[in-house]
Structures are given as C-alpha cells and as structure tokens.
C-alpha cells in the first residue's frame, strides 16, 4: 500500500483503492517488503500505517529479525526499532495487530520454538507498556508468523502472549489451516 493519497506506484495500491474494493486490512512491514524491496521504517512503514488507519483500514504491523541479527543477540533491538516506527505514527491502536515474523523462519521450515516466540511477544508487550501505554499493551493482539503449521500451532498457541497466527503456506492446505485456526479458537475458549 502506498502512503500517498490516490497515488499509483508499481507494486502499490493506494489506501483509497483498497477501501474502494472492500479491503478491510493491510499488512505493513512484511519481511519481503523490508528485505526484498527495501522499505524502511522511518520513511515508509510508519507513514503507511498512519495513512491506512486514517482511511479506516485495519493494520497488521509486522516486525522481525534476520537470522544473523538473532545470532548476534539483536532480536530485541531490531524488533523495538521496528515497533518505534509504528508507535511514532500511530495514535489509536484499536485497529492494529502486531505480527512477529522472525525472517529466518519464514518459508524455511524452521520455526521459532514456542519459548523463543513467547519471549519476543512478551518483550514487545512490555515495550508497548513502557513506550505507548499499559492499556495498549494489554489489549493489542500480537500474533506469530514464521512457518506456522498444523504440527506446531498447538504448542505455540498455548503461550500467554501469542494471540494468533499470520499463516503463509500452511493456509493452502485446508485441513492444516483448519487445525491452525482451531488451535487459537480453543485457546480463547478455555482462557
């Protein structure tokens, strides 16, 4: 999505165009946009989030680190920098969902352990409490996206701060996708 009114850019649609065709959500900050196209936090991603929200679109705000960043112990630094770009531009978090997608686990078959994912989700929630508000920290949904599948979703869904999933390839297999959806639904019912 572009952050300028009614603009048309190759690979982008304007927020107005998306609303006109009935879209309700946009995914912003996705790893492919960051690392393949080169979108950066300060110039594009935060502005896009603010503009999308101003046009009554809901925002899925993606954050996540590369493998070399994780191995260098920079996971939190990277994720918090990405969060800051969103927080600097978002005033109302009602229609925002945060998606933690460790880049090293997307489409690779690797997945963060439930403990690794929970650790980042909890740290993001703490960051929100300190840098945005306690209310936002307690109400915003933080979902996990990184090679989620029918085999690992139940253990991930058990973690306190994992509120759902951003599903990629597994969504193409109906029974697997249903298992993933049900893992989160049953978590909410039993909570």
TrEMBL record:
GO cellular component: cytosol
Entry similarity comment: Belongs to the triosephosphate isomerase family.
Full protein name: Triosephosphate isomerase
CDD domains to which the protein is assigned, alphabetical: TIM
GO biological process: one example: glycolytic process
Organism encoding this protein: Triticum turgidum subsp. durum
UniProt keyword list: Isomerase
InterPro entries: Aldolase_TIM, TIM_sf, Triosephosphate_isomerase, Triosephosphate_isomerase_AS
Lineage top rank: taxon: Eukaryota
Gene3D superfamilies on file: Aldolase class I
């Amino acid at each position: 999505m572009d952050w300028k009114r009614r603009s048309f850019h190759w690979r982008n649609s304007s927020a107005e165009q998306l609303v006109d065709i009935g879209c309700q959500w946009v995914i912003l900050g996705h790893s492919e946009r960051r690392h393949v196209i080169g979108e950066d936090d300060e110039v594009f991603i935060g502005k896009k989030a603010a503009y999308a929200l101003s046009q009554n679109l809901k925002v899925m705000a993606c954050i996540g680190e590369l493998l070399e960043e994780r191995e260098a112990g920079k996971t939190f630094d990277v994720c918090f920098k990405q969060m800051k770009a969103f927080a600097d531009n978002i005033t109302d978090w009602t229609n925002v969902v945060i998606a933690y997608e460790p880049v090293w686990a997307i489409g690779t078959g690797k997945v963060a352990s439930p403990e690794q994912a929970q650790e980042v989700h909890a740290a993001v929630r703490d960051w929100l409490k300190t840098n945005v508000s306690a209310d936002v920290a307690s109400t915003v949904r933080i979902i996990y996206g990184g090679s989620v599948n029918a085999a690992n979703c139940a253990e991930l869904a058990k973690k306190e701060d994992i509120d759902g999933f951003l599903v990629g390839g597994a969504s193409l297999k109906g029974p697997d996708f249903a298992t993933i959806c049900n893992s989160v639904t049953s978590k909410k019912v039993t909570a």
